[in-house]
Specification:
By secondary structure, this protein is an alpha+beta fold. Helix content is 53%, strand content 10%.
Amino acid sequence: MTATLVKEAGAPPSGPAVRARRTRRRGRVIAVLFAFPALLLLGALVVYPVLFSIGRSFFDASGTRFVGGENYTEMFRDPATVKAVRNTAIWVVVAPALLTGLGLILAVLVEKVRWATAFKLLLFMPMAVSFLAAGIIFRLAYDEDPNKGVLNAAVVSVHDAFAGTSPYPTARARDGHGLKGEPDGSYRTTATVSPGDSVTLGLVGVPPKELPAGAEPAYPAAARAAAPDELRGVVYLDFTPGGGGEQGKVDRRESGLPQTKVEAVGGDGKTAASTTTASDGSFRFTGLDSGSYTVKLPASNFAEPYGGVSWLGPALVTPAIIGAYLWIWTGFAMVLIGAGLAALPRDALEAARMDGANEWQIFRRITVPLLAPVLTVVFVTLVINVMKVFDLVYIIAPGPVQEDATVLATQMWLVSFGGGNNQGLGSALGVLLLLLVIPAMVFNVRRFRGSQR
């Protein structure tokens, strides 16, 4: 019996509890072995760069002299960095709020669309486009030339439909041939005329191929004499195709300039009458009082065409880039909010309808409060994304306004590698960006953990 007790005392412990502990220990070891490659990559690609950047931010541009917090002080003394912080704040306030609002509205509306899946696909498709490609697309769309930029082409078309456009923006008068220019861009005759007279007003600078389709030769109109009670004339292109002709005289092959506004100005400087030239460039004034007049071609005939909006100018470049960002991320917000909307208890919505609530009341008092956790996650996720935006700003903003559109990420790159060659200051900017992103990340992680519980 004593031998048996000794044997049992020397034997290793066993039993279900011991085996369970061994199994858990073995499972931990296996989990660590499987996670080790990922942890190694995480340390090499995230942890080490973060620690290195923090250390590098305390050294000068060359990386050899310790400067302490000088880079952080310099960072907030630099006007470009201050502007980058301001622009980043605009991004954080505007873009996530707009995206969350648009995503919510579209997610609610798409439920009532018959082809909801196709609609969601169309809105989510920009997510498949890289930021580089999207930047190039919107750089072209925002081009100030209406012949290239689709937005300005639309703006110019709408403007011209309501305000009209000048018929001959490149036209000008020949010096010394009866017309003189005025400071406001108009032209008027150098000599006075009276009822019963005829005048010929020659212009140049209009390419023959840009004449209106219905333009006719001006020679027959110029040959007609004026009646005693009328003032007659012709506005024509003083250029003979193929060469030849005489300057200041209407030749047989020279075209009239239709749709040109003409005014008869009295001696008191007031406009007595106005008209528009016919297809052959002819015009006439009847019912004028006797006296002397000058014939005027108003500046509206020669005004430069409306060029549209300078989307990428200093004033609008940041809103324009935010617009491109909205195009890419609206589908993302809509899909996430739509998933939350699909999980809402339908009995609450139906009960509200049975109680007489309209759709707006249901949306405001039931749908939005129930979706608050999803909306918060979407908003915070977008805040993290906009703090790191780089590609769109760098690609869309032209060189002259790059500083007006810069954000922290682009400023960090410009200071470090884009000509500044000051990795110390660039590292300080990177640390600042990290400190701004961390609170949003911590908040999001806590929200995820709370939803899991």
